[in-house]
UniProtKB/TrEMBL annotation:
<feature type="transmembrane region" description="Helical">
    <location>
        <begin position="23"/>
        <end position="44"/>
    </location>
</feature>
<protein>
    <recommendedName>
        <fullName>Transmembrane anchor protein</fullName>
    </recommendedName>
</protein>
<keyword id="KW-0812">Transmembrane</keyword>
<keyword id="KW-0472">Membrane</keyword>
<keyword id="KW-1133">Transmembrane helix</keyword>
Length: 217
């Protein structure tokens, strides 16, 4: 049996009370959006409260993870384009000088190249060498005092969709050197992205066994 007393009209909230409650709820939602959601999800901290609460750092980590996923997607897409038509897509970045190649006349030519690439904040660039399995290249690249994220990787000829083979990755790195040994016939090289707020200049020097080297992104 339902024994609750039916409220009278006097017990119901007035229009003014409803409007006041709605306005308070709206203001609270905006306050939480600005001070909590935007810093934690998008690293947008208008009031400064997000950084004090540590939420902005969470948003920056999320943004960094999302941003780092973009190069891999671009690499996979670039691999499909290169393997199907040998065409390349060039982004508007400044190449300060053109590569200089020196090779001898022996059956196994040794090339020496240097490229200088200027990267604006959040801009990426990719350089690939045409190599056969087992061929080696000594390399050295530097951000000339800056810091960049990089991904050294290779793409075989007619690579299947989604293929990825990496030689190494790094975040906020100033330079790197070593010897790259091709794991298969195809294109091998580096992708860099400048995550700083200043323009960075990449200088890449290579020496070894490769048919050609060019910027593909």
């Amino acid at each position: 049996m339902f024994n609750s007393k039916q409220p009278s009209l006097d017990d119901l909230p007035t229009h003014q009370q409803l409007l006041r409650s709605t306005a308070l709820a709206f203001i609270s939602a905006i306050f939480l959006l600005v001070t909590v959601v935007m810093p934690a999800e998008f690293a947008i901290d208008i009031t400064g409260a997000g950084r004090l609460l540590g939420l902005t750092q969470v948003g920056e980590v999320k943004a960094q993870i999302k941003a780092e996923q973009e190069p891999e997607d671009a690499l996979k897409s670039g691999s499909e384009i290169a393997s199907s038509s040998e065409s390349v897509q060039v982004v508007p970045a400044t190449v300060i000088d053109t590569p200089v190649s020196v090779s001898d006349n022996s059956a196994l030519a040794i090339r020496r190249d240097q490229q200088v690439i200027e990267l604006k904040p959040n801009q990426g660039a990719e350089v690939k060498m045409q190599m056969q399995k087992g061929q080696t290249v000594k390399y050295y690249w530097t951000a000339n005092g800056g810091k960049v994220n990089y991904d050294a990787h290779g793409d075989p000829i007619n690579a299947p969709k989604g293929f990825y083979y990496g030689y190494g990755k790094g975040r906020s790195i100033g330079d790197d050197s070593g010897t790259l040994i091709a794991e298969f016939d195809g294109k091998h090289g580096w992708f860099w992205r400048n995550r700083s707020d200043k323009t960075v200049t990449i200088t890449l020097k290579t020496q070894g066994e490769y048919a050609n080297i060019k910027r593909v992104l």
